[in-house]
Write the structure tokens for this entry.
Amino acid sequence: MKTYQKLTLSSEQVKFLLFCAFAFLMFTPEVFGVAATHDAGFNASTNNVVGIINNSLVPIILIAGCLAAIALSFMKSSPTPFIVGILTTISFGFAKVWINTTYAICA
């Protein structure tokens, strides 16, 4: 049976990899051009996905989480999971409003 030595990276190899990553990010403008395209199809599809996630999927997940917290509360005979579920839902709603307001102010 053949055994292999552990692969160890020297500091020079790590520096070279980090330099290559930095050079790729700095000298490739397409890296930052995801949302700045002129293609209406890509922007439209991105907006559709964001709309589906924000308007349909997230409330369903939050409601399912609250229902699961209720079920866990009954199984453990303790109100703690339900309280945590409700606080998580409220804090998510607060964070969503905070992010939307910040985006509206900055945009």
Notes: The first helix runs from residue 11 to 27. The chain is about 75% helix and 0% strand. The chain has a mean pLDDT of 76.
